[in-house]
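Handout, page 2. Input:
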Amino acid sequence: MKPAEAAKKILDTMLGHLGFTVNIEIQESEEGPCLQILTSESKFLIGKDGERLDDLQYLVNRVLKKHFSKAPRVRVDCEHYRAIQEDHLVEEVHGLAERVKASGKAFKMRPLNAYYRRLVHNALVDIAEVESVSPGGDDRLKQITLRLKKASES
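Output:
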């Protein structure tokens, strides 16, 4: 059994024990395998701001690593929630970058996890005048600051 198939079985078993009836599709993406949960009960699986999806993803990957030590990290999504959120975030970042360019003032974003911070940094790669800065530290959620690049860095 391949790791992605094992992850699907792990997730299906977990959700079955919780009383959910779902269909799970394995989708390949740039970030690796994604388990797409298809159900009419998505709001219960997504949770507030996707927190339940994060928890499910964490648990699936923990169990998977016990059986396949070299397994790639598996993403868990429900009804394409994460993809939609990522598209909205990229749009938001582009709008904020325009605001920073127009006003010259830095803007601090809401706290984001590492995955979403990486999306923000990548969304600004093609915008030469604006940079994103993450604070140091071990916090899971950090606020990125968008600001104009200094003249010497352009």
